[in-house]
Amino acid sequence: MSLGVGSDGIFYAYNHIRTPYIYDSNNTAYYFDGNNTSVMNLVTVNSLGVGTSVSGTTGEIRATNNITAYYSDERLKTRLGKIENREWRPHTWYNAQAGTFGSEPTMELDVQNTTDELQNLLTPFIVQMGGIYNQKVLFEGGGERTQQIMNKFSKVRFNRYEPGMIMRCHMDHIRSLFSPPEQGIPVLSMIICLNDDYEGGELVFWDDYKVKPAAGSIIAWPSLFLYPHRVDEVTSGRRWSAVVWCW
Length: 247
Known about the structure:
mainly beta, Jelly Rolls, six-stranded antiparallel β-sheet, 20 strands, 9% helix, extended
């Protein structure tokens, strides 16, 4: 066998290497055992055969038995209640001058408050997204008072868009979120996209910046007058989302 270490510090073998285990030098919790269980962090394969030979077709998985996945297999999930079966009400707008709430007579979407279980379920994702956003816009030169954008967030609200429904253009100056002892204004808005099997219903910023989010994604933006937005008319299917405002 011919062995060598290159100038880049990498070990090279010019024939076979036989070893029962290969460990990650940075974290020995990750290892490869070709004859037993292996633990790896990220794995990319072009083609995979489970109990059978691979097809060689990129992106194809072949298996001699069932493939069970959390995303597609209902047996692996704990259902906390389907939101579509709970009570919905028309969305309302707050009139700050009159101090009243009201709905538009046509095309208004439906909304639903969250439950404690669903709020707890979504909280880790909201916190994670807030951290990601915070890192992207962090102003390090401003001292400790500029290091954290989001400290708290509202209760989640679910939105349902039937065909023909829209969200009219608006800005997220939602003072009605706050009542004593809480005080403030929202600084970060988030939409959690629950599905994408519908037509229309694009999220539109300003006049023409359109976003068609994928199911499971979260969109966040500053809750400022600089970010007017709307949801275009849903033309088929139902659009489901959850919204939350942070301060």
